[in-house]
Amino acid sequence: MRRLGAGQAPGGAYVGLLPGTLSPILPVELPAKLSGGAREQVAGRQVSDMVSLPAGSFEIHPLQPKGAKTWNRVLFMARDDIAAWRQKATKGCQAILPDFFALPSAPGLWAIEVEGDTLRARLAADDGFTAEADLAIAQLQATDAPKGVLRLGDPNTAVDAYLAGLGVPIHTDPAALKKAGLAPLRWADVTAGLNLLTPPSAAPQRIQAGLRRWRLGALAAASAAALWLGMLYLQTQTAQQEAAQNRDLTLAMVRQHFVPDGPILDVRAQVGAVLASAVEPEVIEVQGLPALTQFQIAAEVLTRDTAQVALVTYRPETGLETTIETPDFAALDALVLDLQGADFLVEQLDSRAEQSGGVSARLRLELLE
Protein backbone atom coordinates (compact mmCIF):
# COMPACT_ATOMS: atom_id res chain seq x y z
CA MET A 1 0.00 0.00 0.00
CA ARG A 2 1.11 3.53 -0.70
CA ARG A 3 -0.28 7.02 -0.46
CA LEU A 4 -1.38 8.25 -3.87
CA GLY A 5 0.78 11.05 -5.21
CA ALA A 6 3.58 10.40 -2.71
CA GLY A 7 6.86 9.55 -4.41
CA GLN A 8 7.38 7.21 -7.33
CA ALA A 9 4.71 4.58 -7.90
CA PRO A 10 5.77 0.94 -7.48
CA GLY A 11 6.23 -1.16 -10.58
CA GLY A 12 3.79 -3.94 -9.60
CA ALA A 13 0.31 -4.12 -8.16
CA TYR A 14 -0.51 -1.94 -5.16
CA VAL A 15 -3.37 -0.37 -3.20
CA GLY A 16 -3.54 3.43 -3.21
CA LEU A 17 -4.51 5.36 -0.10
CA LEU A 18 -6.15 8.79 0.01
CA PRO A 19 -6.66 11.02 3.06
CA GLY A 20 -9.58 9.74 5.10
CA THR A 21 -10.59 13.30 5.91
CA LEU A 22 -11.83 13.54 2.29
CA SER A 23 -13.97 10.41 2.59
CA PRO A 24 -16.09 10.44 5.75
CA ILE A 25 -18.72 7.82 6.58
CA LEU A 26 -22.22 9.32 6.81
CA PRO A 27 -25.38 7.75 8.28
CA VAL A 28 -28.65 7.64 6.31
CA GLU A 29 -32.17 6.72 7.45
CA LEU A 30 -33.84 4.43 4.93
CA PRO A 31 -36.84 2.07 5.01
CA ALA A 32 -35.79 -1.56 5.34
CA LYS A 33 -37.81 -2.60 2.28
CA LEU A 34 -36.19 0.02 0.00
CA SER A 35 -33.48 -1.67 -2.05
CA GLY A 36 -31.31 -1.48 -5.16
CA GLY A 37 -30.87 1.71 -7.11
CA ALA A 38 -33.90 3.32 -5.46
CA ARG A 39 -32.22 2.95 -2.04
CA GLU A 40 -29.05 4.58 -3.37
CA GLN A 41 -31.02 7.45 -4.91
CA VAL A 42 -32.91 8.18 -1.68
CA ALA A 43 -29.64 7.97 0.25
CA GLY A 44 -28.08 10.39 -2.24
CA ARG A 45 -30.85 12.94 -1.63
CA GLN A 46 -30.38 12.65 2.14
CA VAL A 47 -26.62 13.14 1.81
CA SER A 48 -27.20 16.12 -0.50
CA ASP A 49 -29.30 17.77 2.22
CA MET A 50 -26.81 16.77 4.91
CA VAL A 51 -23.74 18.29 3.25
CA SER A 52 -25.58 21.08 1.36
CA LEU A 53 -24.19 20.01 -2.01
CA PRO A 54 -26.05 19.25 -5.26
CA ALA A 55 -26.52 15.55 -5.97
CA GLY A 56 -24.22 15.53 -9.00
CA SER A 57 -21.25 16.91 -7.07
CA PHE A 58 -20.42 13.82 -5.01
CA GLU A 59 -20.35 10.04 -4.98
CA ILE A 60 -21.64 7.70 -2.29
CA HIS A 61 -20.56 4.10 -1.80
CA PRO A 62 -22.95 2.03 0.39
CA LEU A 63 -21.32 0.23 3.32
CA GLN A 64 -23.13 -3.07 3.88
CA PRO A 65 -21.76 -5.17 6.74
CA LYS A 66 -20.96 -8.75 5.83
CA GLY A 67 -24.04 -10.90 6.31
CA ALA A 68 -26.40 -7.92 6.62
CA LYS A 69 -29.47 -7.70 4.38
CA THR A 70 -29.31 -3.93 4.01
CA TRP A 71 -27.19 -0.86 4.75
CA ASN A 72 -27.63 2.52 6.45
CA ARG A 73 -24.23 4.20 6.03
CA VAL A 74 -22.33 5.44 3.00
CA LEU A 75 -18.76 6.39 2.16
CA PHE A 76 -18.82 9.98 0.84
CA MET A 77 -16.47 11.54 -1.74
CA ALA A 78 -16.71 14.90 -3.50
CA ARG A 79 -16.72 14.10 -7.22
CA ASP A 80 -13.90 16.52 -8.07
CA ASP A 81 -11.74 15.12 -5.25
CA ILE A 82 -12.14 11.46 -6.18
CA ALA A 83 -11.63 12.22 -9.87
CA ALA A 84 -8.30 13.88 -9.05
CA TRP A 85 -7.20 10.91 -6.91
CA ARG A 86 -8.16 8.43 -9.61
CA GLN A 87 -5.96 10.31 -12.05
CA LYS A 88 -3.03 9.85 -9.66
CA ALA A 89 -3.51 6.08 -9.68
CA THR A 90 -0.95 4.47 -11.99
CA LYS A 91 -1.35 1.27 -13.99
CA GLY A 92 -0.57 -1.09 -11.13
CA CYS A 93 -3.20 0.37 -8.76
CA GLN A 94 -5.71 -2.34 -7.85
CA ALA A 95 -7.83 -0.33 -5.43
CA ILE A 96 -8.17 3.07 -3.75
CA LEU A 97 -9.09 3.15 -0.07
CA PRO A 98 -9.43 5.86 2.58
CA ASP A 99 -6.30 5.59 4.71
CA PHE A 100 -8.17 4.45 7.85
CA PHE A 101 -9.38 1.34 6.01
CA ALA A 102 -5.75 0.24 5.58
CA LEU A 103 -5.57 -0.54 9.30
CA PRO A 104 -6.20 -4.08 10.61
CA SER A 105 -9.74 -4.99 11.66
CA ALA A 106 -11.25 -7.60 13.97
CA PRO A 107 -14.58 -7.83 15.82
CA GLY A 108 -14.30 -5.80 19.01
CA LEU A 109 -10.99 -4.19 18.02
CA TRP A 110 -10.10 -0.53 17.58
CA ALA A 111 -7.03 0.05 15.43
CA ILE A 112 -5.64 3.51 16.24
CA GLU A 113 -2.71 5.10 14.40
CA VAL A 114 -1.32 8.57 15.10
CA GLU A 115 0.84 10.46 12.63
CA GLY A 116 1.75 13.94 13.85
CA ASP A 117 -1.50 15.71 14.73
CA THR A 118 -3.64 13.28 12.71
CA LEU A 119 -5.37 10.19 14.07
CA ARG A 120 -6.64 7.35 11.92
CA ALA A 121 -9.12 4.95 13.49
CA ARG A 122 -10.66 1.74 12.26
CA LEU A 123 -13.50 0.76 14.54
CA ALA A 124 -14.93 -2.15 12.51
CA ALA A 125 -14.63 -3.79 9.11
CA ASP A 126 -16.92 -1.09 7.67
CA ASP A 127 -16.36 1.80 10.08
CA GLY A 128 -13.60 4.32 10.72
CA PHE A 129 -12.43 7.89 10.25
CA THR A 130 -9.45 10.22 9.99
CA ALA A 131 -9.38 13.46 12.00
CA GLU A 132 -7.21 15.75 14.07
CA ALA A 133 -6.27 14.01 17.30
CA ASP A 134 -8.32 16.29 19.59
CA LEU A 135 -11.44 15.93 17.44
CA ALA A 136 -10.83 12.21 17.08
CA ILE A 137 -10.97 11.70 20.84
CA ALA A 138 -14.43 13.26 20.91
CA GLN A 139 -15.55 10.92 18.12
CA LEU A 140 -14.17 7.90 19.97
CA GLN A 141 -15.99 8.95 23.15
CA ALA A 142 -19.28 8.74 21.24
CA THR A 143 -18.57 5.11 20.28
CA ASP A 144 -19.06 1.95 22.35
CA ALA A 145 -15.81 0.84 24.00
CA PRO A 146 -13.94 -2.03 22.30
CA LYS A 147 -12.61 -5.31 23.69
CA GLY A 148 -9.09 -4.25 22.84
CA VAL A 149 -7.01 -1.59 21.09
CA LEU A 150 -4.19 -1.89 18.56
CA ARG A 151 -2.10 1.28 19.09
CA LEU A 152 0.21 2.20 16.22
CA GLY A 153 2.19 5.25 15.15
CA ASP A 154 3.48 8.27 17.04
CA PRO A 155 2.95 8.85 20.79
CA ASN A 156 0.28 11.35 21.77
CA THR A 157 -0.32 12.18 25.42
CA ALA A 158 -4.02 12.99 25.12
CA VAL A 159 -4.82 10.00 22.92
CA ASP A 160 -2.85 7.54 25.04
CA ALA A 161 -4.43 8.85 28.25
CA TYR A 162 -7.92 8.39 26.81
CA LEU A 163 -7.18 4.86 25.58
CA ALA A 164 -5.70 3.88 28.93
CA GLY A 165 -8.86 5.07 30.62
CA LEU A 166 -10.96 2.58 28.66
CA GLY A 167 -9.67 -0.26 30.83
CA VAL A 168 -9.17 -2.65 27.90
CA PRO A 169 -5.96 -4.34 26.70
CA ILE A 170 -3.78 -2.14 24.50
CA HIS A 171 -1.55 -3.91 21.98
CA THR A 172 1.27 -2.37 19.97
CA ASP A 173 2.11 -5.43 17.85
CA PRO A 174 -0.47 -6.77 15.34
CA ALA A 175 1.11 -10.22 15.71
CA ALA A 176 -0.09 -10.38 19.33
CA LEU A 177 -3.77 -9.92 18.47
CA LYS A 178 -4.44 -13.57 17.64
CA LYS A 179 -3.29 -14.75 21.05
CA ALA A 180 -5.56 -12.13 22.62
CA GLY A 181 -8.60 -13.48 20.75
CA LEU A 182 -8.67 -10.51 18.35
CA ALA A 183 -7.28 -12.14 15.22
CA PRO A 184 -7.51 -9.66 12.30
CA LEU A 185 -9.91 -10.56 9.51
CA ARG A 186 -8.64 -11.49 6.05
CA TRP A 187 -7.75 -8.57 3.78
CA ALA A 188 -10.46 -9.53 1.27
CA ASP A 189 -13.12 -9.49 3.99
CA VAL A 190 -12.20 -6.07 5.36
CA THR A 191 -11.97 -4.33 1.98
CA ALA A 192 -15.00 -5.78 0.19
CA GLY A 193 -17.20 -3.00 -1.19
CA LEU A 194 -14.79 -0.24 -0.14
CA ASN A 195 -12.84 0.25 -3.40
CA LEU A 196 -13.07 3.84 -4.68
CA LEU A 197 -10.98 3.21 -7.82
CA THR A 198 -14.06 3.06 -10.03
CA PRO A 199 -17.30 5.05 -9.74
CA PRO A 200 -20.50 3.34 -8.61
CA SER A 201 -21.88 1.14 -11.43
CA ALA A 202 -23.26 3.29 -14.23
CA ALA A 203 -26.65 2.52 -15.67
CA PRO A 204 -25.40 1.82 -19.23
CA GLN A 205 -22.92 -0.73 -17.92
CA ARG A 206 -25.61 -2.60 -16.04
CA ILE A 207 -27.89 -2.52 -19.06
CA GLN A 208 -25.19 -3.72 -21.42
CA ALA A 209 -24.33 -6.62 -19.12
CA GLY A 210 -27.86 -7.77 -18.38
CA LEU A 211 -30.20 -6.87 -21.25
CA ARG A 212 -30.81 -7.81 -24.88
CA ARG A 213 -32.46 -5.77 -27.59
CA TRP A 214 -34.52 -6.95 -30.49
CA ARG A 215 -33.36 -6.55 -34.13
CA LEU A 216 -35.67 -6.97 -37.08
CA GLY A 217 -34.91 -10.18 -38.92
CA ALA A 218 -37.37 -9.96 -41.80
CA LEU A 219 -39.74 -7.59 -43.56
CA ALA A 220 -42.69 -9.03 -41.65
CA ALA A 221 -40.98 -8.24 -38.34
CA ALA A 222 -40.28 -4.70 -39.51
CA SER A 223 -43.95 -4.22 -40.34
CA ALA A 224 -44.98 -5.57 -36.95
CA ALA A 225 -42.61 -3.20 -35.16
CA ALA A 226 -43.92 -0.26 -37.20
CA LEU A 227 -47.47 -1.08 -36.18
CA TRP A 228 -46.37 -1.37 -32.54
CA LEU A 229 -44.69 2.02 -32.64
CA GLY A 230 -47.79 3.42 -34.32
CA MET A 231 -49.75 2.33 -31.28
CA LEU A 232 -47.24 4.11 -29.07
CA TYR A 233 -48.06 7.38 -30.87
CA LEU A 234 -51.55 7.44 -29.41
CA GLN A 235 -51.83 10.56 -27.28
CA THR A 236 -53.13 10.32 -23.75
CA GLN A 237 -55.92 12.70 -22.84
CA THR A 238 -56.51 14.33 -19.49
CA ALA A 239 -60.18 13.40 -19.32
CA GLN A 240 -61.05 9.88 -18.25
CA GLN A 241 -63.50 9.51 -21.16
CA GLU A 242 -60.84 10.38 -23.75
CA ALA A 243 -58.37 8.02 -22.09
CA ALA A 244 -60.94 5.22 -22.32
CA GLN A 245 -61.44 5.94 -26.04
CA ASN A 246 -57.70 5.70 -26.60
CA ARG A 247 -57.56 2.39 -24.77
CA ASP A 248 -60.36 1.07 -26.99
CA LEU A 249 -58.44 2.16 -30.09
CA THR A 250 -55.27 0.50 -28.79
CA LEU A 251 -57.11 -2.76 -28.22
CA ALA A 252 -58.58 -2.52 -31.72
CA MET A 253 -55.10 -2.15 -33.25
CA VAL A 254 -53.80 -5.06 -31.19
CA ARG A 255 -56.78 -7.14 -32.35
CA GLN A 256 -56.21 -6.20 -35.99
CA HIS A 257 -52.43 -6.57 -36.18
CA PHE A 258 -51.29 -8.81 -33.33
CA VAL A 259 -53.96 -10.92 -31.62
CA PRO A 260 -56.67 -11.74 -34.19
CA ASP A 261 -58.21 -14.51 -32.05
CA GLY A 262 -58.80 -15.17 -28.38
CA PRO A 263 -59.04 -12.78 -25.41
CA ILE A 264 -56.67 -9.81 -24.96
CA LEU A 265 -55.54 -10.13 -21.35
CA ASP A 266 -52.08 -8.50 -21.29
CA VAL A 267 -51.29 -6.15 -24.20
CA ARG A 268 -47.57 -5.90 -23.43
CA ALA A 269 -47.02 -9.63 -23.00
CA GLN A 270 -49.13 -10.69 -25.98
CA VAL A 271 -47.71 -8.14 -28.44
CA GLY A 272 -44.20 -8.85 -27.15
CA ALA A 273 -44.72 -12.56 -27.83
CA VAL A 274 -45.72 -11.85 -31.43
CA LEU A 275 -42.66 -9.66 -31.98
CA ALA A 276 -40.37 -12.17 -30.28
CA SER A 277 -41.30 -14.83 -32.81
CA ALA A 278 -39.77 -12.79 -35.65
CA VAL A 279 -36.61 -11.33 -34.15
CA GLU A 280 -33.15 -12.45 -33.03
CA PRO A 281 -31.25 -11.21 -29.96
CA GLU A 282 -28.22 -8.97 -30.04
CA VAL A 283 -26.29 -7.32 -27.21
CA ILE A 284 -27.66 -3.81 -26.81
CA GLU A 285 -25.51 -0.78 -27.36
CA VAL A 286 -25.22 1.66 -24.47
CA GLN A 287 -26.00 4.65 -26.67
CA GLY A 288 -29.28 5.21 -28.52
CA LEU A 289 -31.67 2.62 -27.05
CA PRO A 290 -34.78 2.46 -29.29
CA ALA A 291 -38.19 3.35 -27.91
CA LEU A 292 -39.40 -0.24 -27.96
CA THR A 293 -36.43 -1.42 -25.91
CA GLN A 294 -36.85 1.43 -23.42
CA PHE A 295 -40.49 0.49 -22.95
CA GLN A 296 -39.60 -3.19 -22.49
CA ILE A 297 -37.21 -2.19 -19.71
CA ALA A 298 -39.76 0.14 -18.10
CA ALA A 299 -42.50 -2.50 -18.37
CA GLU A 300 -40.62 -4.73 -15.91
CA VAL A 301 -41.32 -2.05 -13.27
CA LEU A 302 -44.64 -0.69 -14.54
CA THR A 303 -46.37 -4.08 -14.37
CA ARG A 304 -45.37 -4.84 -10.77
CA ASP A 305 -47.75 -4.98 -7.82
CA THR A 306 -51.05 -3.08 -8.22
CA ALA A 307 -50.04 -0.55 -10.89
CA GLN A 308 -51.82 -0.77 -14.27
CA VAL A 309 -50.58 0.67 -17.55
CA ALA A 310 -53.44 2.51 -19.25
CA LEU A 311 -51.55 3.96 -22.22
CA VAL A 312 -48.06 4.33 -23.68
CA THR A 313 -47.00 6.93 -26.24
CA TYR A 314 -43.77 7.78 -27.99
CA ARG A 315 -42.75 10.79 -30.07
CA PRO A 316 -39.21 11.74 -31.07
CA GLU A 317 -39.67 15.27 -29.78
CA THR A 318 -41.11 14.28 -26.39
CA GLY A 319 -39.83 10.75 -25.84
CA LEU A 320 -41.55 7.88 -24.05
CA GLU A 321 -44.66 8.72 -22.01
CA THR A 322 -47.01 6.43 -20.11
CA THR A 323 -50.33 6.82 -18.32
CA ILE A 324 -50.58 4.58 -15.25
CA GLU A 325 -53.22 3.88 -12.63
CA THR A 326 -52.36 3.13 -8.98
CA PRO A 327 -54.53 2.59 -5.89
CA ASP A 328 -53.30 5.80 -4.22
CA PHE A 329 -50.62 8.50 -4.30
CA ALA A 330 -48.34 6.49 -1.99
CA ALA A 331 -48.31 3.65 -4.52
CA LEU A 332 -47.55 6.18 -7.25
CA ASP A 333 -44.57 7.55 -5.29
CA ALA A 334 -43.28 4.00 -4.73
CA LEU A 335 -43.59 3.25 -8.45
CA VAL A 336 -41.64 6.40 -9.35
CA LEU A 337 -38.87 5.34 -6.94
CA ASP A 338 -38.77 1.88 -8.56
CA LEU A 339 -38.47 3.45 -12.03
CA GLN A 340 -35.63 5.67 -10.81
CA GLY A 341 -34.02 2.58 -9.33
CA ALA A 342 -34.17 1.01 -12.81
CA ASP A 343 -32.13 4.00 -14.09
CA PHE A 344 -34.98 6.03 -15.56
CA LEU A 345 -35.24 9.80 -15.32
CA VAL A 346 -38.91 10.27 -14.40
CA GLU A 347 -40.86 13.48 -15.04
CA GLN A 348 -44.36 13.48 -13.57
CA LEU A 349 -46.43 15.47 -16.08
CA ASP A 350 -49.71 15.29 -14.17
CA SER A 351 -51.58 13.20 -11.61
CA ARG A 352 -55.10 13.22 -10.28
CA ALA A 353 -57.49 11.25 -8.10
CA GLU A 354 -60.21 9.49 -10.10
CA GLN A 355 -63.88 9.63 -9.10
CA SER A 356 -64.03 5.87 -9.29
CA GLY A 357 -61.14 5.60 -6.82
CA GLY A 358 -57.41 5.32 -7.32
CA VAL A 359 -54.93 7.69 -8.92
CA SER A 360 -54.10 8.30 -12.58
CA ALA A 361 -50.74 9.81 -13.55
CA ARG A 362 -48.88 10.62 -16.75
CA LEU A 363 -45.10 10.10 -16.64
CA ARG A 364 -42.32 10.91 -19.09
CA LEU A 365 -39.50 8.35 -18.96
CA GLU A 366 -35.93 8.68 -20.16
CA LEU A 367 -33.44 5.85 -19.71
CA LEU A 368 -30.23 7.34 -18.34
CA GLU A 369 -27.05 6.69 -20.36
Keywords, separated by commas or semicolons:
single chain; 369 residues; alpha/beta; Gyrase A, domain 2; 3 domains; 5-stranded mixed sheet; 4-stranded antiparallel sheet; 17 strands; elongated
Give structural notes.
- The chain has 369 residues and is α/β, with parallel strands linked by helices.
- It has three domains: 2-203, no CATH class; 205-278; 291-367, General secretion pathway protein M, EpsM (Gyrase A, domain 2, 2-Layer Sandwich), CATH 3.30.1360.100.
- 33% of the residues lie in helices and 27% in strands.
- The chain has helices spanning 36-51, 79-88, 133-141, 157-164, 187-191, 203-210, 219-232, 240-257, 267-276, 291-302, 329-341; strands at 2-3, 14-18, 25-27, 58-62, 73-78, 93-98, 109-115, 118-124, 127-132, 148-153, 170-171, 212-216, 279-283, 308-315, 319-326, 344-353, 359-367.
- The strands form five sheets. A five-stranded mixed sheet has the order 9-8-7-10-11. Strands 14-15-17-16 form a four-stranded antiparallel sheet.
- A hairpin with a 2-residue loop joins strand 7 (109-115) and strand 8 (118-124).
- Helix 1 (36-51) packs across helix 11 (329-341) and helix 7 (219-232) packs antiparallel against helix 8.
- Mean pLDDT is 77; it is low at 202-223, 225-229, 233-239 and 279-287.
- This is General secretion pathway protein L.
